[in-house]
Each structure stands twice: as structure tokens, then as C-alpha cells.
Amino acid sequence: MRKLSILMLGVAMGAGVSTLATQGRLLSTSSAVAAASDTYRQLNLFGDVFEKIRSDYVEKPDESKLIESAINGMLSGLDPHSSYMDPKSFRDMQVQTRGEFGGLGIEVTMEEGVIKVVTPIDDTPASRAGVLAGDSITHIDDEPVQGLTLNQAVEKMRGAVNSTVKLKIVRKGSTDPVEVKLTRDVIRIRSVRSRSESDVGYIRITQFNEQTFENLKKAFDQIGKDIPADKLKGYVLDLRNNPGGLLDQAIAVSDAFLERGEIVSTRGRNADETQRYSARAGDLSKGKPVVVLVNGGSASASEIVAGALQDHKRATIVGTRSFGKGSVQTIIPLGGNGAIRLTTARYYTPSGRSIQAKGIDPDLQVVNEVPPELKGKDETKGEAALKGHLKNGDDEQGGSSAYVPPDPANDKQLNFAYDLLRGVKVNDAQGKAPDQQGQTKAPATAPN
């Protein structure tokens, strides 16, 4: 009888489990319905607020602006890098990533309300017309630039290829303004600059746009012509103050220095969204030693390159800790209504490190001397200081110095890299190097 009681208890328990499982499914379905109902209530609340603003605000509001602000608020509330782009912003972003546009070929800045030419780009309408570095542009198509923002002035100088624009220029040493009429042409942003420094190839990447890898190959070719292979000590890859750009270009640049192995992985919300990107055979640098320069302004795609080369021990990383932006944004067009930039994944270096809010620590920390007037203004706060950033544990890091001296002779990070490649400085087993005072320290513009 006791055995029967136990058996019956077991059956009862089994029945109880079955009933609970069924109830669990019912509860799950019920919860989903409740959640959906709550979401619809919130959407109704949004509609109520929108109607109140339309009918009762002190002035008639622009309804499209209200919707844009609501969408942007929704996205910016997620993290610092998700946002809404109206059609114009979307077009500007496409120009930036494409790396070419209709314009004049001058890099400009703004000083005291006047547009000042930083440099004309070679073989462009501006350089052919004799525009010089240091020229001040006071009028565009007879309209004064005084009162315009830099972006507004740049927008006026850009335009359709073969269209014309007139500039009034004030040149230092000349009393009379100069007027030049220019025909816009296709301008390509130089994201890669290179030069040969005796026995070392110097390559600087300012951003990762659609032209970057092709321009990198040209840089390798030119350095190869300037320096015989038996004389070439190696390459300096300068990624300082590079804010990032296209993921595929960061992968291609990393691949240029690697023969094999993973470059980066991206991981989304679900496990099946993980993607891994690996190098293909063919090292464009032909195995020569590489030193990568980073600082507090090196972010995103530039951190992918530095992290991949560091993990594979293909390069020595020199400088200061990078920015720490370890997330991937996907651009999702909205028909003719602009686009959204949405954070869809985090990226990880080959060893599985997440750089998010931590950055890349250099193998050898070298800090440039900062002029007294810039001290305290030279450091980036880093991703970890951005409000609403994606969290990454308890050991998040702040920013670091992002100062690069305008004169290469005073650039201690760059000259340290040259010395390292030439064997004047040694990357010892402890990973220590002299800092800018010679002490031992443990590693730690608008074109148009």
C-alpha cells in the first residue's frame, strides 16, 4: 500500500509538472500580450502628447520637425552613437564615406569669422587657379562669409561638377582682394598620406572611407620606388586622431599587414549574429617591421587595425591609450526620409578583447610634450566618459592625450617610432621604453 501511495504521488507530481508547464506557456503568452498591450498604450500616449503640442503650443509647430525630434530622441537615448539623419545629413554622410564630391579642392578652417585656406589639394581647381595656403576667403558668389558657420561656407563651395563659383580672396602682403572664378570638379579626399623618410616608410591614415585601401596600396608602391627593399627598415602607420569610418576598410588595411588569422569579430544581440573576418594570404608590407602610432583621438576602425596587429604581434603599438569606441553602427536608409544610424554589434580583437570604453593600451607609452597654452585641453575623455555609453565591466578607462605637434621634428612619438625601427631604441622583453624625458616608463579640418 505504501508503494502504491508513493507511485501515485509520483504520478500526481508528474501531472503537476505537466500542468505547471502548460501554465508556464499560458503565462508566457499572457506576458507577451500584456507587454504588447503596454507598448500600444505608450504609443497612444505619444499620439496624445503630439496632438496636444499641435493644438495648444504657443506657436504653430513644424510637425515634421516634431517627428524628427521624437525619432532622434528615441535613438539618442540608446547610446551616444545611434542617431537619426535627415536627408541632408544622410547625403553628407555618404559624401564623407565615399571620399569624393563635387568641389574646389581646398582644405579650410575658420579664423575670426573668416574662412582661411589651410592647403590647396594638388591638381584640383583651387590649386590650378593659384589659391594659396593662408589665403582668406571673404566672399562666395559675392555673398560675405561673415556670419556663416564653417559647414555653411563649405556647403556653398561644394556643388555639382562643372558648375562655377566665384571667390573673393584676401592675401597676406596684398592690399587688393583677388577674385577667382572656379569650375567645380570631382574632389577625392586624401585619407592616406605617405612619405619616405630615408630608410623608413611613413603612412598616415586620417579616416577610413571607400578610397582608403586603394590609397594605401599606392602608398606602398611609392615607398617601394623611393626606398630599395634591402634598405627599407620598416613602416610607421600613423593612426593618431583617426576617428574611424568603414569597417570593411579597417579589415582591408589590417589584411595588408597580415598573412593569416582573424582580424576582428562582431557580436550582436543574438549568438547567430556573430561574424568573423579573417586575413587572406598576401602581406603588402612584405613582412617588414611595423610601428603603429595611436593616441586619445584614435577611435573605432583605427582601434580595430591597432588591436588586430597588436594581438598578432605584427606591430608594436606606440603612443597613448586610444579612445575606446568598440561598437558597430549600421546605416539603415528610410526611403527618401533620411536614415538611422543604429548600434547593432560590439567588435572584438582576435584575442577576444572588447575595446568598448577601454581602448587599446600601447605596448610602449610615449607622450608628446604639450605647449603650456594647450595643457588640460589636449586630452580626450574617451568613450567611457560619454553619457549613455555601452558598459563594459568595472575597469573602464578614461581618455588620454591626443596632441600631435605640427612640426615632425618635435613629435616625440613619431621620432621614437623611427628610432625603434632603426634599432636606436629597443623594445625590450619587459616592454619598457624611455618616455619623453628619458625616464623608463611601463607601457600603458573640412575639405571641399
Automatic annotation (TrEMBL):
UniProt keyword list: Hydrolase, Protease, Serine protease
Biased composition (Polar residues): 436-448
KW Cytoplasm (keyword) present: no
Keyword Cell inner membrane: no
Highest taxon above the source species: Bacteria
Renumbered residue ranges of the record's region Disordered: 389-412, 427-448
Domain PDZ span(s) in chain numbering: 90-160
SMART domains: PDZ (SM00228), TSPc (SM00245)
PANTHER family per record: CARBOXY-TERMINAL PROCESSING PROTEASE CTPA, TAIL-SPECIFIC PROTEASE
Family according to the record: Belongs to the peptidase S41A family.
Protein name in the entry: S41 family peptidase
